[in-house]
Structure formats: structure tokens, C-alpha cells
Design goal:
This protein is an alpha/beta fold. The chain folds into two domains: 309 residues, no CATH class; 119 residues, no CATH class. It is built from 21 helices and five strands. Strands 2-1-3-5-4 form a five-stranded mixed sheet, covered by helices on one side. α1 packs across α19, α3 packs across α14 and α12 crosses α14. The longest helix is centred in the first third of the chain and has 25 residues. The radius of gyration is 24 Å and the shape is globular.
Length: 467
């Protein structure tokens, strides 16, 4: 299903950024570890510029997440019905659908968290041993994708210390697994240390609300309802309660403690609501057990109908998270799913920038300067040969324009920001995505700047920003 709709709308701004980062492979970037850009590079080498081809990967990651959710249910004692319920609820979850549609760090992160939940639960059930090494390898790879995995690992450790079984800490395989995770993560750690830990600065910027998907702290809990589905809420809540209270699942109580601890931590520190989404497949797996007991305890078909109705009523997730509606009707959807707006209008955006660029004399060595990495990535993708630069995140490390460039197209900047840099500044266009959708690029100004008043070496530090 995900692959069938993969070509609708267009690239997400982050996909354009990952493709650009994949052309600048490194052991780290100021805003992320290297794995997702590496995956984007690999897919581009295999499928070229195919949007559908690029999105085969997140679709497969989402499918694997659904499968592992069923495996978690099996480890907790669930039979086939419980496994199918866990898989089905995970597949219908808003967070899995949206991150299975386009490539993002969260596409990988959801699978990593679900795998770590499964492997840790399995290790506890089997009494540890070499299975911990698989958990360590998974953790290390996850840390090469997103540092959020550190919080999951810490939460599991705290949960095991509080609720047990504490015997796991006497297993040498566990400590060896920790060494494996650290060894796999080490190249990125070294990169971060050599660059003064830029991800700490980024985390502070996100906590302050610099990201388009940031939310105020008081919306953190309400957003947990929509990350799966309001109608599937009883299943994962039942899973959380079961993990915390059931004697049969006492050995796995640490998963519930980890969820609660991380929810409180991210709410206090300004984390995004989806930061704990990777634990929902495990909660849905745990919730499948009491849910199916409830269904079997009922008489007749009523409870089966109610459970089926929860899935039917969750079907709006497909409309909200996948590109099914015409683009012109996406306005109300953006209120729930901000990111869908960032997949619309990039070819028209690039065409507008290209028209502005063509008006500048070639002798002045004109360049394009964009406000954010998505805009820069779109110029790279659709305007071959046009030199584009941005001070946003990793783009700022990939080089400034040459001082010989005396003219520029500025995209997305307010007049007061760029006017001091230009002897002649002209607004030549406003970006229009053609469907009247109010996304981040709609109606941003496009300026032509002639006769720069300073060199790019002097201006570049003023353009750099992290967020």
C-alpha cells in the first residue's frame, strides 16, 4: 500500500536534505548521525532520481516494524490472534503510516526501538546470553541514525533497576553488548566531539520551538492520542496498565516504566511528542493480550464487532497520513500532519528560483542562497548546474559561495535581513505552489541581489544557523 502511493505529491524537505547529505558522506552532521543520509545515497545509486524508488526503503522499514510488533506479542505469550492484533494496530498507527511513506530518521528509528523492545523482552524471557549481542548491534546502528536511542536504553536500564529482573545485570553478555553498541557508535561520537557536540545545540534549539514539528509542552500528552489512533487508544493503554500491574508480565514491567519515564522527561525538556513513538508497537503488543481476553470473554459477536469498528474508525489515518487527497484539499490535514505540506510544490518552487537566477549576469558569477535546507535541496534536485548554498544546519559546513560571486538570488529571507548586503535588491517573485496550500514555502519572497556590499567570507558567519 505504501509503495502504491509513494509517487504522489513529491519529496519531503527532509528527503531532499538527506539526498544532499548523501553527496557529502561523513561520520556525522551537525543535526544527525550518518545512517539515513547513507541510506539515501545508496538508494539514489540504485534507483537514480526515482521518488518511488527512494520510498521503497521506508515502506520496507514500516513493514518490518509491523512484523516485529507481532514478535513482541509472541514473546509476551500472545497466540496468533494476539500477534495479528498487534501487527494490525501497528500498521494502522498514524506514526507508522506517515514515516513509512517518506524516508526520515524516524523511519529507521521506529524499527530500531521496536527491535530493541523485542530483543530485550526476549533476552529477559530466555535468561540472557548471546541474544544481548543482537540488541547491542541494533542499538549501535540505531545510534548511528538518531541519538534518541540513548534515552530508550537509559529508560530500559532504569526500569530494570526499579522493577527487575535485576539478575540481567549479572549477565556478562549484557555488558559485552554495551561494548558492541559503543563500538558501532564510536565514529559518530568522535565526530561530534571534534565538532564541539553540535547536536546539543540543536536539541536546545528544538526545545525552544525552532522545528516546524515542535509543539508546546502542554500538547505533548494530547498528541500521544493521535500518534496511534484515538480509537485504538484502549489497546495501548491496556498494554501499559498490563505491563505495570500484571503478575504474569512482571518480568517485562520495565517497558511500561520506560514509557512513563520518557514521557515525563520529554514533556519537561521540550521534546517532540513523537519522540516516544517507538514504544507504541511494544505497548500495542502488550495490549493485544487483555484485548483478546476481553473479546473471547464476551458472548456473541458484539465485542468482535466493536474491535473491528475500532479499526474501521481509524481509517481516517490513511487520509491524514498518506497522499490520498488532491493537493488543493490538504489545508485542514496540515493542522494534524504538518509534514504533508512539506511534500507539495517543490518543482514549482525550483522553477521560480531558476527564472530569477536567469536574470542575473553570468559574468557576476551568481549563486542561490536559501533560507533552509529543504529549499537548497530542491534547487540541487531540480536545477542542475545552479550553484546553491545555505547556512542552515549541515549545508553551512559544505562551503560558502566563492568571493568572486558578486550577485545572488536570496530565497525566503525578509527584506531587512538581506538589504544591507546588496547595492541593488529587487523582489522578483513570490513562490506559489499552484494549489493555494499554506505550507512553509508558500508566498516566500525571491530576491535578486546585485553588487554585494561585502565578501561572502564576511557574510557567511551571519547566515549560519542551527535548528
Amino acid at each position: 500500500m505504501l509503495i502504491a502511493v509513494a509517487g504522489r505529491y513529491g519529496y519531503h524537505r527532509d528527503e531532499l536534505y538527506f539526498l544532499a547529505a548523501g553527496r557529502h558522506l561523513d561520520w556525522g552532521y551537525v543535526d544527525q548521525p550518518p545512517l539515513t543520509p547513507l541510506l539515501a545515497r545508496m538508494m539514489s545509486l540504485i534507483v537514480g532520481d526515482s521518488l518511488v524508488g527512494l520510498r521503497i526503503l521506508p515502506a520496507l522499514l514500516a513493514g518490518a516494524t509491523v512484523l516485529v510488533a507481532a514478535l513482541v506479542a509472541r514473546e509476551l505469550g500472545g497466540a496468533r490472534a494476539e500477534q495479528l492484533l498487534a501487527a494490525g494496530a501497528t500498521a494502522m498507527s498514524a506514526i507508522v503510516l506517515v514515516n513509512g511513506h517518506w524516508l526520515s530518521t524516524t523511519s529507521v528509528d521506529l524499527l530500531v526501538w521496536t527491535l530493541l523492545s523485542w530483543l530485550t523482552v526476549r533476552a529477559v524471557r530466555l535468561g540472557g546470553g548471546p541474544i544481548w549481542l543482537w540488541a547491542g548491534l541494533t542499538a549501535g546502528m540505531g545510534l548511528q541514525n538518531k541519538m534518541l536511542v540513548v534515552f530508550l536504553l537509559a529508560a530500559f536500564v532504569v526500569g530494570l533497576v526499579i522493577t527487575g529482573p535485576r539478575r540481567v545485570f549479572r549477565d556478562p553478555w549484557l555488558w559485552l553488548a554495551g561494548g558492541v553498541a559503543l563500538l558501532v557508535w564510536l565514529p559518530n561520537l568522535i565526530w561530534q566531539a571534534r565538532h564541539d557536540w553540535p547536536q546539543l545545540e540543536l536539541s536546545a534549539a528544538i526545545a525552544a520551538g525552532s522545528s516546524g514539528s515542535s509543539q508546546p509542552w502542554w500538547l505533548f500528552v494530547p498528541f500521544q492520542v493521535v500518534l496511534v489512533s484515538p480509537f485504538l487508544l484502549p489497546i495501548w493503554v491496556a498494554g501499559l496498565v498490563t505491563l505495570l500491574r500484571s503478575g504474569d508480565l512482571r518480568s517485562y514491567r520495565f517497558v511500561g516504566v520506560a514509557y512513563l519515564g520518557l514521557a515525563v522527561l520529554f514533556m519537561i525538556t521540550g521534546g517532540k511528542p513523537y519522540y516516544i513513538a517507538g514504544l507504541y508497537p511494544a505497548l500495542l503488543a502488550a495490549g493485544s493480550l487483555p484485548t483478546m481476553r476481553w473479546v473471547r470473554a464476551g458472548s456473541g459477536r458484539l465485542r468482535r464487532v466493536l474491535l473491528g469498528s475500532a479499526f474501521v474508525l481509524s481509517s481516517p489515518n490513511l487520509i491524514l497520513m498518506l497522499p490520498l487527497l488532491p493537493e488543493r484539499l490538504l489545508g485542514p490535514v496540515i493542522a494534524v500532519n504538518y509534514d504533508v505540506g512539506e511534500t507539495v510544490g517543490w518543482p514549482r518552487f525550483a522553477a521560480t528560483v531558476g527564472e530569477a537566477y536567469a536574470t542575473l549576469p553570468e559574468a557576476d558569477g551568481p549563486v542561490v542562497i536559501t533560507r533552509n535546507y529543504g529549499e537548497a535541496g530542491a534547487v540541487e534536485r531540480y536545477l542542475a548546474g545552479v550553484p546553491v548554498f545555505s547556512g542552515h544546519n549541515a549545508y553551512s559546513d559544505w562551503g560558502a559561495p566563492p568571493d568572486s560571486a558578486r550577485a545572488a538570488v536570496f530565497v525566503g529571507f525578509p527584506r531587512q535581513r538581506v538589504e544591507p548586503w546588496c547595492s541593488e535588491l529587487t523582489e522578483v517573485a513570490r513562490v506559489d505552489n499552484g494549489v493555494g496550500l499554506e505550507n512553509d514555502e508558500q508566498d516566500v519572497p525571491v530576491w535578486t541581489c546585485r553588487s554585494l556590499t561585502a565578501s561572502w567570507s564576511a557574510l557567511w558567519p551571519q547566515l549560519r544557523r542551527l535548528g
